[in-house]
Amino acid sequence: MTVPGPSQRYRCFKVADHHAGEDPIRLERLVLGLKAHTSLTEWAWIMHDRDEGRPHVHVAIRCRNARTREEVARYLGVSVEVVWPLSGRGAFARYLRYLTHEAPDQAHQARYRDDEVHANFDWRAVVNGLPVGAAQKGPAVEELVQQLFRGEVTIKEVYDRHPDMAVKHWSRLSRAEAQGAEFLHRVAMQERREGEAEQLRANEEARKLAEEKARQEAEELARQEADEQARKLAEEKARRMEWLASQEYRKQQEHKAAQEVQKRQEEHFRDLLDMTAQAYGFTGHRDAREAQVTQEAVEAGLLAQGAVLTLDVLAAAYCAAHDIEPDIEEVNAELARFQQEVRHMPTAIAAAEHHAADGNSEAFATALRLRRECVEMPDIYRVPAVRSDLRKDWQEQLTAVC
To answer: Which of 144, 153, 103, 143 lies closest to 127 in space, CA to CA?
Structure first.
């Protein structure tokens, strides 16, 4: 079979694309090419999906001006190997008729309806315009050559249908079948290589995507582990700080409690010292009274010379001053009464002087006595100022005591 040269131009073409029959995207690209290029003035196509073998698409094209196979293939986005010229009188109309397999020599093939043909012109009118003789005439040898080349029929089928033509053109038809088989084999091998290359590219892309995904997952896992480690460290630090704070708080509370205990012990010691000094009749400031009580305790054999007074020694000295048996409960009860007396002394003086302001001499005597008691231990009692509304001589006596 003679393959048209790259520079040869024709006005009519036929396309038989087996890939578009199984690839919707390729079919869509082909149809868009037909519609987009205005130089393709008339076109019709059909899907042969009831023939033996793979589904395939047939296209008949008539151009405004002559075009090459390469140009038409580029318009449609198909391989140039599936584009062939339609040459000779009535070739375009006969190929349109082939779309539906309605010719007598195509009776053995699946019949297709007119509404399955997609066209931009009245293709049926073109087919109907074929001469009557053309309707009964068998296919041209060139058409058989191209069918054999494309693998649409076998030479045996040609012989069974057109024995005279097969015998007359046997060499040419056999050569077309062999060349077509070789061509189809090359196309299949090329498609196989392209498919393998595409598969390799897809595998490489999948490998890269898998590596990238694994890297991202590893980074995410590392980030999560780092976050978890940071969270644990933060929690541990918080617990440590909380523990330290609790320890510090406990120490502060213990220190505060110890200070309170020490303060109460000091106050208890001070009040017991004051009460004991009062029992012995010692006067003056606390330091002097403490020295006197210490000396009394030493003389009574309650304290060693040079030793320091303690609460027990003070309690014993108090009991000795009243000549009673040592009894800590009794001492504590007396101490409570003494503390209450000290707290209430200012109130008692103020009450006595209030009545003295009314001219009550007994109240004046009581106020004078209480002030004298306070003077004996000036660091124990808080003494209020003398009232200004008292008799002048009583004011002078009370002031003189202070």
So the answer is: 103
